[in-house]
UniProtKB/TrEMBL annotation:
Domain of life of the source: Bacteria
UniProt GO molecular function: calcium ion binding; hydrolase activity, hydrolyzing O-glycosyl compounds
GO biological process: polysaccharide catabolic process
Organism: Ruminococcus callidus ATCC 27760
Domain EF-hand: 844-879
Protein name: Dockerin type I repeat-containing domain protein
Signal peptide as annotated in the record: none
InterPro entries membership: Dockerin_1_rpt, Dockerin_dom_sf, EF_hand_dom, PBP-Tp47_A, PBP-Tp47_dom_C, PBP_Tp47_domC_sf, Shr-like_HID, Tp47_mid_C_dom
Organism lineage: Bacteria, Bacillati, Bacillota, Clostridia, Eubacteriales
Length: 892
């Protein structure tokens, strides 16, 4: 089929339109309401002869001169597309471009009733879809068992299905000047009067199409095709005669539903037609919405596209919606409430217009503690509010979707008590600790939730009669209404009668975080992928409830502790290859398995103050994880080569082996050679990369060893120095690789998060004041035996060191000596505490006060009392009498 205008390409141009929020300017709105002047047909005047027929148009061609809205973001381009996804994950936020669908069961068959549908195979070939029930000359067949979807032409496989597009209405009535008719037929698919058209098949309320095309001057919605100087055609505003032809909808036979909001398919307003709707639904090709607000004047008119806004179902009615997009933004200063006139255009029908009043709903606002499955159910695009306001205590859609199953969006288990019940205390709630001190993070706490007033009243009454149960009853039992109901929360969810919750609703547009740079790691202690969000700033006091990582093919919710760290500045997850993180906690992977090989396009933070998003225009590719391995054998530095074994790499993995810090490194035939003369002992990393960039790299550590000992202890300097004959560089390499120091019988790690710096890695100096989390390494004066181990050095270094420890006990005034002043401070503090003055301090400086009280606790039992004062007085008196006592002599 040929067209006068180019159909939007398969992938669509990725135009970086402005974020589709807020209202357009009044000037743009006014401009889009006035159709450009096009010569109208003049049948009765006899000045022009016309041919009447039906033709297939694009959405842009159909709506361009109808006086409908086009956002300024489209820059006058009626075919403008948008790469942004709506709340259901569809890229329907453009103007009047073709509606693209990735799946064969969404919009394909029902769109073919009245719209031109083209299907594409994976080779880029396109086919005009004919629809089921019409001999299937072009059809799409799915084989679920085999996991394939095939384009079929005349019963034979033509190619693997890739996607489909809904181009525009198929049977638009047009009047074409007779002189231009032959050119028109070359440019457009034309259905002449008397042409038999078929489409669809009867399924419950919907009926198949089997009739003849009949168009004349009285046909509803006729457009005039006017040939332009460049040979293309434009189409006038649709016109209806005073005595229009076509069937009339029986308003008593159809039922218009209540207005719905945020129904889960990207729309912000929706109304359904039920009752005897089947024939109208099968013939519907477009819908116009006129917004009046509180007055009698049209404020804005909006055009729609099938599958992006409109839909008909075999048993659930005609579903008409509007999505905020390049084709629909509310006028500035309006909220969408008030009068809407909805007009349905259907082939063979006169226009059907009905009015709905979109009245503000009344809500009760409060807070809830939400299990992760319930919190993320609506956020991930799952349909909510499935019961049309009828309470269902039996429904558990999150459970039915498998989100409560172990390893999906169930509780997060932590083996350590420090993290599960304190690190995220403001944003999560937890069960009791287990026998190991760990516990479970069950979900998100204090989430703002809105409940429609009528639903709240019914739930309250049911709760009083003990009638509540199930998911809905459990959630409502934890609902705490806010004291001030006049304040709409900055961010909240809506609880529906089936126990589901909407995606987050925000009072303000999402904040576009333009200064955040994600850094990706594919070899992390905490999962298969880790993101460090450099520059992330969500504002002081802003709580992160959840994070959604959006890829080209799906959305993924992140959970606190397991996936979200440091206020969201670090994110990590497992795609099924790394099963445990560094602390031994099991990692869930079921929800995230499909991220391997996908591309991140957006990262959204759901917070107490609203939604904050990082948009990645170029995408961030997640290299495919795999089961390949690399192993390297530790050898002596003098060997000059390291045996390296690669195993189980994917067949198309193009391996490149490297070791960046290894001087002269080169890999060939299973060996990594290096310059043995210049390489020093220590740990080195060997990396195996995929030159194509498709797969994630592998890495392993290898230790190059030596029997030589380049270090010795110098008692006079109190430091580790070069051994006889060793160079300064040799010592520096040794000190950098010190891994453990054993003091007498206690071994301390020298590196890592909790490493203890006993030997200075730069100067070799022994730190007599070295501290661990449990206290000082050297607790008293004396001689200590030190055994030093260094990575790559097979011989430990052992020596003795004399340590002089200054005891600060009883030095309350922190002046370096213990005297009567210190005793006075101790007695003063003790007297005040004994008198009940719990707020008494020795210093207004909090840190200094802490040090003074610690010094006053002479016996180290955690409290300061008269016993401590007695010990201090005894110590001062003994020293004054010339008796050289120690604290060990006094405290026995």
């Amino acid at each position: 089929m040929q067209h006068g205008r180019k159909i939007q390409e398969v992938t669509m141009r990725e135009i970086n339109w402005k974020k589709l929020v807020g209202a357009a300017s009044a000037a743009v709105l006014a401009a889009t309401q006035v159709a450009p002047a096009i010569t109208a047909y003049a049948e009765e005047a006899g000045t022009t002869d016309y041919v009447y027929c039906a033709a297939s148009l694009t959405w842009a061609e159909y709506w361009e001169n109808e006086g409908v809205y086009l956002d300024s973001a489209a820059d006058g381009n009626w075919e403008a597309s948008s790469a942004d996804a709506d709340s259901h994950g569809e890229t329907d936020l453009g103007a009047y471009d073709a509606v693209t669908r990735a799946t064969s069961n969404h919009g394909l068959h029902r769109g073919s009733y009245q719209c031109t549908v083209k299907v594409f195979d994976t080779e880029g070939n396109s086919y005009d879809y004919t629809g089921r029930g019409q001999n299937e000359s072009v059809d799409v067949v799915s084989n679920r068992d085999a996991g394939t979807t095939t384009v079929m032409v005349d019963g034979k496989a033509a190619g693997a299905y890739d996607h489909s597009v809904i181009v525009g209405p198929k049977y638009v009535p047009v009047a074409v000047p007779a002189a231009d008719y032959e050119d028109f037929k070359k440019a457009y698919t034309v259905y002449e009067n008397g042409t038999e058209v078929k489409g669809g098949y009867t399924e419950k309320n919907l009926v198949n199409i089997d009739e003849e095309i009949q168009v004349d001057a009285n046909t509803s919605g006729i457009k005039v095709a006017e040939k332009q100087e460049d040979g293309t055609f434009q189409f006038s505003k649709r016109s209806t005669s005073e005595t229009p032809d076509g069937k009339v909808v029986d308003k008593d036979a159809v039922e218009i539903s209540e207005v719905q909001h945020d129904s889960g398919y990207g729309d912000f307003i929706r109304v359904d037609i039920n009752g005897d709707y089947g024939d109208l639904g099968a013939h519907m090709y477009a819908v116009r919405w006129d917004y009046y607000g509180d007055g009698d004047t049209v404020l804005a008119t909006y055009g729609t596209k099938f599958a992006a806004d409109n839909w008909m179902h075999k048993s659930m009615g005609i579903q008409l919606g509007l999505t905020k997009s390049d084709r629909c933004q509310l006028p500035e200063g309006t909220d969408g409430y008030g009068r809407w006139d909805v007009t349905v255009y259907a082939t063979g029908y006169q226009d059907f217009t009905f009015t709905v009043d979109n009245e503000p709903e009344q809500y009760v606002y409060g807070t809830m503690n939400l299990p992760y499955a319930d919190y993320y159910y609506g956020e991930l695009g799952n349909k909510t509010d499935t019961t049309d306001g009828k309470i269902s205590y039996d429904a558990d859609l999150a459970g039915n979707a498998g989100m409560r199953a172990e390893g999906t969006y169930d509780a997060v288990t932590s083996a350590t008590g420090k993290k599960w019940n304190s690190m995220f205390a403001d944003t999560t709630y937890s069960s009791e600790a287990d026998e190991n001190g760990g516990g479970k993070i069950l979900g998100v706490s204090g989430v703002e939730v809105a409940i429609e007033q009528s639903l709240y009243d019914q739930l309250t009454a049911d709760a009083k009669d003990s009638k509540t149960s199930g998911v809905l009853g459990s959630l409502f039992a934890g609902f705490t209404p806010n004291e001030d109901q006049t304040v709409v929360p900055a961010a909240y969810k809506q609880l529906f009668a089936d126990g589901t919750l909407s995606a987050t609703i925000t009072a303000e547009p999402e904040v576009d975080l333009t200064n955040v740079t994600p850094t990706l790691k594919t070899d992390s202690k905490y999962g298969d992928y880790q993101l460090k969000m450099d520059g992330l700033d969500l504002g002081e006091g802003n709580l992160v409830y959840g994070v959604i990582v959006k890829t080209k093919t799906g959305n993924y919710g992140m959970l606190q502790l397991e996936n979200i760290w440091k206020g969201g500045s670090e994110l990590a997850w497992s795609a099924g290859f790394k099963t445990k993180e560094v602390h031994g906690n099991s990692l869930r992977s079921t929800p995230y398995a499909a991220t391997s090989g996908d591309t991140i396009v957006e990262i959204s933070y759901l917070t107490s103050k609203g939604e904050y998003s990082v948009h990645l225009a170029d995408g961030l590719y997640l290299p495919k994880k795999h089961n390949g391995t690399v192993n390297a054998e530790s050898v002596a530095v003098a060997a000059g080569s390291i045996p390296v074994t690669l195993a189980d790499l994917p067949e198309d993995f193009s391996a490149a082996v490297s070791a960046d810090t290894l001087t002269g490194a080169a890999y060939a035939d299973g060996k990594m050679t290096f310059d043995a003369k210049s390489v020093l002992p220590g740990s080195y990393t060997i990396t195996v990369s995929d030159e194509s960039g498709v797969y994630a790299p592998l890495s392993t550590s290898v230790i190059l060893t030596t029997d030589a000992m380049p270090a010795a202890y110098d008692a006079e300097k109190g430091a580790v120095v070069p051994a006889k004959g060793a160079a300064a560089d040799d010592l520096a390499a040794y000190l950098k690789n010190v891994s453990k120091v054993t003091v007498n019988d206690t071994t301390y790690e020298a590196t890592g998060k909790h490493g203890v710096k006993i030997i200075d890695p730069t100067t070799g100096e022994i730190h007599a004041d070295a501290e661990t989390r449990d206290g000082a390494v050297f607790t008293k004066s004396g001689t200590y035996k030190l055994t030093v181990e260094a990575t790559g050095y097979t011989t430990p270094l052992t020596f003795e060191v004399k340590i002089e420890v200054t005891d600060s006990r009883a030095d309350v005034d922190l002046d370096g000596r213990v005297d009567s002043t210190d005793v006075f401070y101790m007695m003063l503090y003790t007297a005040n505490i004994s008198a009940g003055n719990a707020d008494f301090v020795l210093s207004e400086d909090a840190e200094k006060n802490k040090q003074m009280i610690a010094a006053a606790d002479v016996d180290g039992n955690g409290s300061v009392d008269s016993t401590d004062a007695f010990y201090a007085l005894y110590y001062v008196a003994s020293k004054g009498a010339g008796v050289n006592v120690t604290w060990e002599d006094i405290i026995k």
